[in-house]
Amino acid sequence: MLDDLDLDSYPDLDFDIEWSEPTILNGKSRHTENLHILPQPTLQEMPNFKVLLEGAWLVRDVKSVDDAIGVAISEAGKRLNNANLEFVEVEAGQTVCPMCGEPLDGAFLIAGTALVGLSFEMKVFDAENENHAARIAKSMIGRAMKSVPLSVIEAEEQP
After folding, report:
1. What is the pLDDT of residue 112?
2. Which of 33, 80, 107, 145 is most exposed, with minimal Cβ within 10 Å?
3. Element spanning 139, H or E
4. Are 156 and 49 contacting, i.e. CB atoms less than 8 angstroms apart?
């Protein structure tokens, strides 16, 4: 039986051949053989991460901060959708007042031109560590957000 099986063609396969005691069948001595395939070592699973990036979006010809935030989120969403990155969440960023600690809108409007802070969040699967996950997220989102400066806020391992 095993003589017909070419075990050399499976170099990554761990196996053990067990020969039984000879048995007599129809006056002939025969050995039976059993092939035991040993379990393969499992690959260590790499963790998943949630990565949060921030970006600065410039919006021209707007009259209010709310309009600027809406335009920035809409334009960023279009770029992400065109790059097949629908799974990236986009939100208006916030900043904290250095004096009182109160949260402020992440948009500054001067002379009809606004600088809007956006946050981009995505899940990165099978990354080696937090830095690897952050580089993957920044690369993927950065390709869609050409000329938008991005920085990593956090990369957190997910269960």
Report:
1. 94
2. 33
3. helix 130-144
4. yes
User: H helices of 5-126, where?
Assistant: 65-82
Alpha-carbon gap, residue 73 to 92, rounded angstroms = 7
pTM: 0.69
Any idea of the CA torsion for 72, 83, 123, 118, to the nearest 10 degrees? -10
Query: For domain 48-158, which architecture applies?
Result: 2-Layer Sandwich (3.30)
d(CA 91, CA 72): 9
% pLDDT > 90, the chain: 58
Residue with tokens 């053990």: 16
Per residue in 60-83, pLDDT (tens digit) is: 999 999 999 999 999 999 999 999
The label of the residue with tokens 């959708």 reads 81
Q: Name 144's Cβ contacts closer than 8 Å, sequence gap at least 6.
A: 79, 80, 82, 83, 85
Contacts of 67 (CB under 8 A, 6+ apart): none
Average pLDDT over residues 83-105: 90
Please enumerate in sequence order all residues whose Cβ is within 8 A of that of 35, keeping only pairs 6 or more positions apart, or say none.
2, 5, 15, 16, 17, 18
